[in-house]
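Thread: Newbie trying to understand structure tokens

Hi all, I'm a second-year student working on a class project, and my supervisor (Dr. K.) asked me to get a predicted structure for one chain before our next meeting. I've only ever worked with sequences, so writing a 3D structure as a token string is new to me. If someone could post the tokens and maybe explain what I'm looking at, I'd be very grateful. Here's the chain:
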Amino acid sequence: MNIAILFGGKSGEHEVSLISASSVVRNIDSKKFKIVPIGISKSGVWFLQSDEELERVRSDEKNSFNIVEDEKNLVSVIPGRGKNSFCVGGKPLEIDAVFPCVHGTNCEDGILQGLLEAANIPYVGCSVAASALTMDKEKTKQVWQNAGLPIVPYVCVRRADLNDGAAFKKIIDGAISQFGFPLFVKPCNAGSSVGAAKATNAQELSDALDKAFLWDNKVLIEKSIDAREIECSVTGNATIQNEKSQCGKVAAYIPGEILPNHDFYDYDAKYTDPDGAVLKIPAMLEKAQIEKVRTLAQTAYKILDCSGLSRVDFFIDKNSGELFLNEINTIPGFTSISMFSKMCEAGGLKYGELITLLIEEALEVFEQKKTLLTSR
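---
Reply by user tm_fold:
Sure, no problem. This is what the structure looks like when written as tokens:
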């Protein structure tokens, strides 16, 4: 079975994606699956990568993909052609399913998923609607809040607000009055803490907003909580949940805890500083708290109609013990040492088995969707 691994992308998380994809190709069951590596440049152009590049990555745990932009290997996508949708030089690549190892905007937000739906090909992960919804932090919070789930208090600032000085000042003054300092600022549509900052005074808040608006047209200002950071991995299909199938069953795994050595768990702590954080699995919680996190993670996942995989992130207030939903990441960092896969492993699902499970679920979802009517 031919599995296209997509990596790179027009995203602030391009480099993280290269590492995720490299780990997947080294750990996928090569007896079941043949890898077709496709790199997406920072400008959004797709290129088939050579067998030599694939073997270079497989040969050493320290190696990660370099996207070779060879015009002879440009990939085109023809809608509706199924396994023959992906072509190079006019010849189909015969792809049976797609495993996106891409993160962030233009990759994780429904754009890529819409293309794969148009191509009529199975793919790992959330649907178009769920991907778009979960990428937007404001909309995700609104859905969770409407369902009565606990979220971190926030206000949303739009670029349009910047054009009305009085309205903008009212929003900012209101956030400061309501929440007080410090405050967290983050783009609504970005991951890996890209563009996020902590502000302890008005000038820092202004600087943080300027930075965040470089990445998105909507920005969140959140109340700062003196919190422990807890994460939980979830797999399965929330819409067509089938308890008889391991693929369809929604499962939450053993929660983990992030102990950042930075002021907060920022991009550098996650990816560039080897001592940026300590990862604890299981989280240092009582059994009842662990089950509460798992249950809430499943609920949050199902409400958003997620499928495939997601990492649900929480805050626990150090003073009150109150549990808050923070964010959901539908294509989380996916190396063998990433929190997502390590939490699954702690729950009894090894990394290689996880990859297989996700591919099999993608195929199962695709087959089920084929039974639905598309015309009268």
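A couple of things are worth pointing out once you decode it. Confidence is low (pLDDT under 50) at residues 266-273. The first strand starts at residue 2 and ends at 8. Feel free to ask follow-ups in this thread.
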